[in-house]
Amino acid sequence: MSTPVSGTASAWQLGERALAERIRARFAPRPGVLVVGIGDDAAVATPVRGALEVFTTDALVQGVHFDPAFSTYEDVGFKALAVNVSDIAAMGATSRLALLSLVIPERLSTAEIDALLDGFAAMAAEANVTVAGGNLARSPAGQNDNGVLIVDVTVVGSVRPRKILTRSAGRPGDALYVTGQVGAAAAGLDWLRTQPGNAGREPQDPLIAECVARHRRPAARIRIGTLLGRNDAATTCMDLSDGLADAVTQIATQSGTGAVIDAAALPIHPGAGQWFSGRGLDPLLATLSGGDDYELLFGVPTKRRGRLRHVRQQSRGVPLTRIGELTKDRAIVLKRNGRLERMPPGFAHF
Amino acid sequence: MSTPVSGTASAWQLGERALAERIRARFAPRPGVLVVGIGDDAAVATPVRGALEVFTTDALVQGVHFDPAFSTYEDVGFKALAVNVSDIAAMGATSRLALLSLVIPERLSTAEIDALLDGFAAMAAEANVTVAGGNLARSPAGQNDNGVLIVDVTVVGSVRPRKILTRSAGRPGDALYVTGQVGAAAAGLDWLRTQPGNAGREPQDPLIAECVARHRRPAARIRIGTLLGRNDAATTCMDLSDGLADAVTQIATQSGTGAVIDAAALPIHPGAGQWFSGRGLDPLLATLSGGDDYELLFGVPTKRRGRLRHVRQQSRGVPLTRIGELTKDRAIVLKRNGRLERMPPGFAHF
User: Fold this and answer.
1) pLDDT for B306-332, tens place per residue?
2) What is the ipTM of this complex?
3) Is B56 an 8 Å CB contact of chain A?
């Protein structure tokens, strides 16, 4: 039983056990998914018959990947799961289970923890993911700061053999496609960072507001990733966590090909285009280098174009835009106004 | 390709990509274990036919779970995996795969990262675990400190259905056993903390040296956990990460029983007994409350005692000591010199 405390009390005051119990109560599993759930030495689940297991882990670190002045704790919880679910989708796989490892600073209140869990639960419901377990640890305070919050997540998924979409399976001649629109998350973060006093405000311009929302809560392309795998529509796939330039480079390099991207074809979010232009930046380069878009980049061989049509019919309005192709020549280039440029570097966290 | 840098250079200078490549090279998987390994959006593995999947996650946080003055980075890497493998063993399961998520402060050198990876690899070899993937993130520096190192690990294991050892499967009358010896890790940490200048030294007394070694590199009871499950020798099991008092309380509470522990029967490590006595502490209470022993506590019903003999024959000299039993009466007590005392609280990280 959890000790009753006010929402403004430090989560530490609850103690590790009561906090673990609070999380267990929040994520009561649907019956049948887990053989053993939260509260034992480890969780136990039944594997999906005939499927392979897929694993990924990704952490959000306060001050590196998020700023509590720019995002609510609900946003942080949502995004921490979304970025992992996006990795599973980029393999053509389906997310099943999540483990939530929290490193918690002393000043974090129980209300803030609850908000984080709410956001995590919202994404878990969207992705049909069961929270199977996790870990709680204290974040030590420095001499002049209170320690940082770290949300480290592992997601387990499943995929049928021969339906896996790897980064290395591209071949020269494969057309490259991207889901949705790109550049919005980078523009949204830039708006938050450059406008004094923007932290607590919402942009008045609805297009910029979309960009800020995309930074806070990326739309992991769960459905499309699975459809691309199941329908054998794509060979290679990767998510744009570190930006489009990085993803094109990774797929081409790991596939042993080059790539040509057609600048005019890129589905740059109109808010991002407007924002970067207004800042005197090249919207194309800012978009290519910007991270945190969790769209998918994928390759489609010519003979599979028909299969892509099936995916498009089920994509619920998410655009799938052809932006270039993989080439035999190993160069990775951008075609703009009939001229070839070198691809800019991707986004790097460090 | 990794940039050549001296061992004293900051790992950050390598950059995220080169550091990821260094880790991938260090953990080249044995052929056949992974369908897709480190370097894609997610790892893909073939499940063990007919087995259930087991998952656990546990983090070591600098300043909370380890102190670089007391342990080498090799010790930290070893222990970060050992504490997870211990959780899998406590389910009667076998560890298969590990994911390594690092949050790295700027001052950590490449030599220190390499040492951490060496320790992790040593434990992985011991537990027959394949490193399937992971994540790298920057640990932000505070105003007057350089940020802390966090080693967050997820381990995936497998277990046959009906061979799972849960905390809740104990029944009144089950005898309680513990593996190995207890109290050593707590005594070793206490020696490091209380003796000025001990940080870099080794204890002259070989018994105390054993305690310090146990704090730095716990002996996860991988083999015995699996044997207990496979041979149907135990019903309930838990590792002593938060101490023996905590483990007895967890098993009894989750099983809906009480427990009586016989103080005279406890296999207290002689170095721990000697150290705590010399400090004027009650060795029994210090041992019961101390954390970081990764021994196993398990329950054996009367009719399974014969099966326990089979486990004992294969335990390679690790003692299995009967220390008490689960009771119908819900009280959790310690029997000392013919009198009953309340069980002290377990070790709490916060």
Assistant:
1) 999 999 999 999 999 999 999 999 999
2) 0.94
3) yes
